[in-house]
Design goal:
Elements: H1 2-20, E1 36-44, E2 50-58, E3 63-70, E4 75-81, E5 85-89, E6 97-101, E7 116-123, E8 126-132, E9 143-150, E10 155-162, E11 167-173, E12 177-181, E13 189-193, E14 208-215, E15 218-225, E16 229-234, E17 240-245, E18 250-252, H2 279-307
Antiparallel strand pairs: 1-2, 2-3, 3-4, 4-5, 5-6, 7-8, 9-10, 10-11, 11-12, 12-13, 14-15, 15-16, 16-17, 17-18
The structure holds 2-acetamido-2-deoxy-beta-D-glucopyranose (3 copies).
InterPro entries: At4g14100-like
Keywords: Signal
Length: about 300
């Protein structure tokens, strides 16, 4: 009896250790994307809206095109260039267009490198290998953001300290004007005009409830908003604890002072934001700024694509 069971338990132990120790050498890796391909995607969003997307990925020419047919809705063109410029437009008589400048270009063919293998699962009738890829845009950079949200006065302020880097001011007005600037001797400033203002207090309306989870030691209710943000709120106090953008950039809320208002004088953008000449400084600041504000810009684009 003893001698018969021993090999079995050793075998079980081996199996167990194999299933618990992540083994990079044996895990399958996702195939890199072909450099050019066309694909038709059927999109079923969590809110229930359906889209067909005609995707033309074209890495050698540094461009990516999503032609989006909303169900019984508009035909939208989302054209992305590898220099970070995106155009989002219709070709109907309304002649709508918005553009955005992002820090990152289109997805690299090997964008799935380093993804975490989760195993196999049947999806849409196909047996699939499944990977998860988090933080594929941000590269581990840390920031402290001093956030002053002020809806009654139609303004929102992000004072951003990059780790061992610049102190950056990102001031947003509800009329769509944003100023990004430093207050050091370089006198850098860049302004942008977005079609959307600051987040509304009820911007999470219609979010998809995912259940409860412990995050940072707090028991949180978790919502997801159209595959764009995961939002964690403390069950007991209803304060936000944590959120994660779909890009992987994550925020941990360290203080939350309801009713605190920053004094008016601090909301005044410096005079060099209103001078027309400083174009040479804009490009340098652009790359610094995009790290912190990328989600804001993407949010604008996404809100546009949801609302159109
Ligand atoms: C879209 O997804 C929802 C939720 O997963 C599902 O109930 C619905 O049947 C899907 N619709 C289509 C057309 O696949
Ligand atoms: C990026 O490339 C596109 C297409 O060539 C061009 O229209 C756009 O102005 C470029 N953006 C920048 C910031 O150079
Ligand atoms: C928006 O409001 C800010 C602050 O009052 C102002 O500086 C900016 O010029 C306004 N932008 C537009 C487009 O009116």
């Amino acid at each position: 009896m003893v001698s018969a069971t021993k090999p079995i338990s050793t075998y079980l132990l081996l199996l167990l250790s194999f299933s618990f120790i992540p083994s990079n050498s044996t895990d399958p890796t996702p195939s890199p994307w072909p450099l050019q391909f066309h694909s038709i995607l059927f999109m079923n969003y969590s809110k229930g809206s359906l889209q067909m997307i005609d995707l033309w990925y074209d890495w050698p020419n540094g461009r990516n095109f999503n032609i989006i047919q909303n169900q019984l809705g508009k035909l939208l063109y989302d054209l992305e260039w590898n220099n970070g410029t995106s155009f989002f437009y219709t070709l109907d008589s309304n002649k709508e267009c918005r553009s955005a400048q992002l820090e990152v270009g289109i997805l690299r063919p090997n964008w799935l490198d380093g993804a975490n293998y989760l195993g196999q699962k049947y999806v849409d009738g196909f047996l699939c290998n499944v990977w998860e890829k988090v933080d594929f845009v941000c590269k581990g950079s840390l920031q402290i953001i001093d956030l002053w949200y002020d809806w009654p006065n139609g303004r929102n302020f992000n004072i951003i300290q990059n780790q061992l880097g610049k102190l950056l001011y990102d001031l947003e007005w509800n009329n769509g004007t944003s100023f990004f600037y430093t207050l050091d001797s370089n006198k850098e400033c860049r302004s942008a005009q977005l079609e959307v203002g600051i987040l509304r207090p009820n911007w999470l309306d219609g979010a998809n409830y995912l259940g409860q989870k412990y995050v940072d030691g707090f028991l949180c209710n978790v919502w997801e908003k159209v595959d764009f943000i995961w939002y964690y709120e403390d069950v007991l106090t209803k304060r936000p604890v944590h959120w994660v953008f779909y890009t992987g950039r994550a925020a941990h809320v360290m203080t939350f002072e309801v009713g605190a208002v920053l004094e008016d004088a601090k909301w005044q953008a410096p005079v060099y934001c209103f001078e027309k000449s400083g174009d040479q400084k804009n490009t340098e600041l652009g790359s610094v700024v995009a790290g912190g504000s990328q989600e804001n810009l993407v949010a604008g684009v996404l809100r546009g694509s949801m609302g159109l």
